[in-house]
Design a protein that fits this description.
Elements (H helix, E strand, L loop, with lengths): L1 E4 L3 H14 L5 E4 L2 H13 L7 E4 L8 H10 L8 E5 L4 H9 L3 E4 L4 H12 L3
Helix pairs in contact: 1-5
């Protein structure tokens, strides 16, 4: 199961389509902001339900951005081991360094659809 967290519904739709075209058995969940994602993750944790095998997180989001959510996840005992990949339009060195301190890969969102499929294939390799 992959959890996509991004406030851009078009980006979510395109990535989900790419993931499912490569592996149609993949279960893809989505959240449009960090608060909703965190609430869902904590609920699953508290009910001893399955957690995602991979969290794909955007940095630039309203309400709770990816930096804030990442920090919370890495400080929650039962969530800190969730595999997370940052997929964002940012190529800012401070964002890259922020991710590195948590051992998290930052991938810059592509402008071409063919590149998105390569990224989707890479994300599926985390499963």
């Amino acid at each position: 199961m992959i959890l996509l967290i991004d406030d851009d519904v078009d980006d979510i739709s395109l990535l989900k389509e790419a993931l499912l075209s490569i592996n149609n058995n993949c279960n893809v969940l989505t959240a449009l902001d960090g608060n909703k994602a965190l609430a869902g993750l904590k609920e699953a944790r508290d009910k001893n339900e399955s957690l995602p095998d991979l969290v794909v997180l955007d940095i630039s989001m309203p309400i709770m951005d990816g930096r804030q959510l990442l920090a919370i996840l890495k400080n929650e005992e039962k969530l800190k081991n969730l595999p997370v990949v940052i997929l964002t339009t940012s190529s800012n060195i401070s964002d890259i360094n922020y991710c590195k301190q948590f051992g998290i890969e930052l991938i810059t969102k592509p402008f071409e659809l063919s590149e998105l499929y390569k990224i989707a294939d890479k994300l599926l390799s985390y499963l």
